[in-house]
Backbone:
């Protein structure tokens, strides 16, 4: 696991410690972190504060997303995948797809390069969350 995915995992741990969904994201360009964020849906009682969205927000207004990489502890969902496409982020590195393929196919159809991993740390953290808060996980996944 490289240092940027480790940073994303640190963000995921922050969310878990706050009682939130343990997903973290980091936006990088040329080895420099532009923004970091973690899922804050539960903490802020908001459906839109996904890790990747918070990360992009924290990066602030930047002229272009050319040559950026979005590191996320989990494959981005369609909502976050749409933002990645909208802003032209050309690459996503996913720490795990064990819990879902997210927007993988959509991202690829728009030319986004994807590196997928199943890091045990990312999977284990999500498993811990699901065991502790199954109802929140089901809500987040759209299970009715």
Residues:
């Amino acid at each position: 696991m490289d240092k940027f995915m480790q940073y994303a995992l640190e963000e995921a741990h922050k969310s878990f410690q706050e009682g939130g969904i343990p997903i973290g994201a980091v936006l990088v360009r040329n080895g420099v972190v532009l923004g970091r964020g973690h899922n804050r849906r539960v903490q802020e009682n908001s459906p839109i504060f996904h890790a990747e969205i918070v990360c992009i927000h924290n990066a602030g207004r930047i002229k272009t997303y050319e040559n950026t990489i979005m590191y996320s502890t989990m494959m981005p969902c369609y909502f976050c995948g749409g933002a990645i496409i909208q802003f032209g982020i050309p690459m996503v590195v996913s720490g795990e797809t064990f819990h879902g393929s997210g927007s993988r196919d959509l991202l690829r159809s728009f030319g986004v390069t994807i590196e997928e991993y199943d890091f045990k740390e990312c999977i284990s953290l999500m498993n811990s969350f699901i065991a502790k808060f199954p109802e929140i996980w089901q809500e987040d996944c759209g299970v009715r």
In short: The chain has seven helices and five strands.
